[in-house]
């Protein structure tokens, strides 16, 4: 687990590099008014969800996020962005191959020696955020830092927050819980989905994620004293109090950037996994990239 631990801790540095890279990459990144689709697999899909909501909220153009395997090839876009840490994921490369010569494509990757460099029309390379651990952490958040900066966001406060979340204590009692639910709204729904994925990958924990207002519509029934309910962003009025009355551990840090709070969840996943004897650098049944036979 040494790689995952080091990579999580390095995120303040990699975010700064991503923020700096945004200006140099401006010509390749989506322009105001373009109709954009963002595709990825696993973690990259969830970052795509967050970015799509942020871009639309900023008024910069209609933006859709798809798991690469579900991309609707008959739908018209001005630009398709492919998020792929490895640059080798079969489904992502398939989308780029099918779109070659018909629509502008952009690859955002960590490895400049992989097929995405040839298949995408343009590429932005975050090689400083590449990882040796199978469980993805810093590439995902660094890519989102790049994209948020390009949208015009000032991430000064997010940087200050992540400096804290890489080292502050985990929520008291969280490592002893059995069930974890992550809730978001708007762009943080993607972060909640990613938080749950990290817990499953690194610690084999029972984890779920929902839009916060949907939590009352059924999922709340699983919550009891053995649960953690973690809000990424501001909880809907009264919901945190309702969860506390059930007896669950509620985690919410007001005014903290949710992307920085995701880093603390990454740390929780690693710690619980380590206590179970698991290695997030080589998790069960997973590999760094899914490459399917042709």
UniProtKB/TrEMBL annotation:
Domain SIS: 26-165
EC number: 3.5.-.-
Repeat found in the keyword field: yes
A GO molecular function held by the record: hydrolase activity
Gene3D superfamilies in the record: Glucose-6-phosphate isomerase like protein, domain 1
Entry keywords, A to Z: Hydrolase, Repeat
Enzyme class: hydrolase
InterPro entries noted in UniProt: GlmS/AgaS_SIS, GlmS/FrlB_SIS, SIS_dom, SIS_dom_sf
Cross-referenced PANTHER family: GLUCOSAMINE--FRUCTOSE-6-PHOSPHATE AMINOTRANSFERASE, ISOMERIZING
Descriptive protein name: SIS domain-containing protein
């Amino acid at each position: 687990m040494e790689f995952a631990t080091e990579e999580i801790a390095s995120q303040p540095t990699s975010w700064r590099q991503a923020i700096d890279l945004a200006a140099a990459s401006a010509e390749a990144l989506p322009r105001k008014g373009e109709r954009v689709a963002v595709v990825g697999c696993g973690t990259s899909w969830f970052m795509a969800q967050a970015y799509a909501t942020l871009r639309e909220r900023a008024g910069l153009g209609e933006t859709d996020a798809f798991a690469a395997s579900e991309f609707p090839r008959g739908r018209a876009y001005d630009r398709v962005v492919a998020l792929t840490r490895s640059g080798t994921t079969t489904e992502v490369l398939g989308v780029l191959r099918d779109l070659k010569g018909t629509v502008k494509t952009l690859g955002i990757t960590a490895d400049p020696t992989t097929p995405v460099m040839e298949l995408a029309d343009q590429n932005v390379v975050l090689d400083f955020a590449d990882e040796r651990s199978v469980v993805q952490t810093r590439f995902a958040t660094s890519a989102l830092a790049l994209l948020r900066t390009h949208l015009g966001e000032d991430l000064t406060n997010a940087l200050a927050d992540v400096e804290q979340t890489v080292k502050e204590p985990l929520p008291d009692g969280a490592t002893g819980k059995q069930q974890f639910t992550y809730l978001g709204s708007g762009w943080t729904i993607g972060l909640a989905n990613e938080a749950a994925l990290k817990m499953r990958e690194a610690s084999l924990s029972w984890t779920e994620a929902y839009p916060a207002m949907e939590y009352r519509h059924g999922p709340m029934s699983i919550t009891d004293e053995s649960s953690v309910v973690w809000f990424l962003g501001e909880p809907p009025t009264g919901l945190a109090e309702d969860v506390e009355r059930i007896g669950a551990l509620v985690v919410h840090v007001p005014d903290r950037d949710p992307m920085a709070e995701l880093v603390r969840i990454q740390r929780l996943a690693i710690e619980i996994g380590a206590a179970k004897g698991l290695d997030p650098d080589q998790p069960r049944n997973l590999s760094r990239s899914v490459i399917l036979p042709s």
